[in-house]
């Protein structure tokens, strides 16, 4: 529960700086900043292994906020669904506990989480700006930040249009996932 509270309360900038200092600088386990190209290594740093090694801290920083939110949401939904009549009925009929959890509890508890996932795409794009800035990564967030600083209106518009399309597509995917998760919803 402490992890969840820290993840929800802490800003990605603070998490990234603390991880860079402790894990990268003091312990020396990972590189602090920098980027290795995945496909075209122009320097000695490149390829999939080096790229993944340099992306460990940004991935952790970016995922702490969302992992904490989703853990809290799933826990609350599972506790709520566990008290429903159909769960008690399944247990009373002698269904194995793993079947009750997978088929009855999780399937119904995941509906609000899937909705939240579709809505968090915009938040993820905003969080990417902070993460890319801290770790000096070339990405969409860094491009948007530089375009705003240089008053480059077409680039800002392109980033906004891309983000909007991404949010619309992911919300469509979420709506289609509803039909897979909830048997009461049909696409016809």
Radius of gyration: 21 Å
Largest sheet: none
CATH topology: MetI-like fold
CATH homology superfamily name: MetI-like
Strand content: under 5%
Helix-strand sequence: HHHHHHHH
CATH structural class: Mainly Alpha
Q: What is the rounded distance between the termini? A: 42 Å
Runs in which pLDDT lies below 50 for 5 or more consecutive residues are none
Q: Give the helix level as a range of percent.
A: over 70%
Structural class: mainly alpha
Shape: globular
Structure, explained:
- The chain has 188 residues and is mainly alpha-helical.
- The protein has one domain (2-181): MetI-like fold (Orthogonal Bundle).
- The chain is 76% helix and 0% strand.
- It is built from eight helices and no strands.
- Helix 1 packs across helix 4.
- The radius of gyration is 21 Å and the shape is globular.
- It starts with a helix and ends in a 7-residue tail after the last helix.
- The model has no long low-confidence stretch (mean pLDDT 82).
């Amino acid at each position: 529960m402490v992890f969840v509270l820290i993840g929800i309360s802490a800003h990605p900038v603070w998490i990234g700086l603390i991880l860079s200092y402790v894990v990268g600088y003091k312990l020396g386990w990972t590189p602090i900043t920098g980027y290795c190209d995945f496909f075209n290594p122009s320097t000695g740093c490149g390829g999939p292994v080096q790229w993944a090694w340099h992306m460990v801290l940004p991935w952790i920083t970016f995922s702490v906020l969302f992992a904490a939110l989703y853990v809290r949401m799933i826990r609350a939904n599972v506790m709520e669904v566990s008290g429903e009549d159909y769960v008690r009925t399944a247990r009373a009929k002698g269904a194995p506990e793993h079947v009750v959890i997978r088929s009855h509890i999780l399937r119904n508890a995941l509906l609000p989480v899937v909705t939240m996932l579709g809505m968090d795409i915009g938040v993820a794009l905003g969080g990417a700006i902070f993460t890319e800035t801290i770790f000096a990564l070339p990405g969409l967030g860094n491009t948007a930040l530089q375009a705003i600083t240089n008053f480059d209106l077409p680039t800002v518009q392109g980033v906004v249009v891309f983000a909007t399309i991404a949010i619309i597509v992911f919300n469509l995917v979420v709506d289609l996932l509803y039909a897979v998760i909830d048997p009461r919803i049909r696409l016809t």
